[in-house]
Design goal:
It is built from no helices and ten strands. The chain is an all-beta fold. Strand 1 and strand 2 form a beta hairpin.
């Protein structure tokens, strides 16, 4: 099933600095409450959800290369939420799939453009998971 309302927004600001461009970006997403099956069992209901991400970057050109360095944080508030829930209460429990916790990371991209129009790009991604969920997280109230 899908939420009745889903909205998303993004704000980005760029300015010249240090012979390149600095940027800051914030984005957010809201989903209204949702049931994961047509039975609409309370244990299969996810409460309304707002998620936010932030990103900062620095882009510059040197010796014919374009370099982009970025750092980001996903799930800024470290919100515990689940992507799916199954009512197995007849067995004495419910089963949930938890979404990733807050993630800090970075990206480095180096591009080379040749006069012939050929362009190549090399990316190195790095992720560090910080603020992991506890072993038995308390799920948000479904109300």
């Amino acid at each position: 099933m899908s939420p009745k309302l889903t909205t998303a927004g993004l704000l980005r600001y760029e300015w010249p600095a240090f012979n390149g461009t600095l940027s800051l970006q914030a984005e957010g997403k809201y989903d209204s409450p949702v049931y994961f099956t047509t039975l609409n069992a309370p244990v299969e209901r996810r409460a309304a959800l707002f998620l936010g991400d932030v990103r900062g970057g620095y882009s510059f050109k040197t010796n014919g290369y374009a370099v982009d360095l970025t750092a980001f944080v996903r799930n800024v508030t470290n919100r515990v939420w689940f992507t799916y829930g199954v009512d197995t209460s007849s067995l004495g429990f419910a089963q949930y799939s938890l979404a990733p916790p807050r993630i800090f990371g970075g990206n480095r991209a180096i591009s080379l453009s040749l006069s012939s129009g050929y362009q190549t790009q090399h990316q190195l991604l790095g992720y560090i998971c910080i603020g992991t969920y506890p072993a038995s997280p308390r799920l948000p109230d479904s109300a």
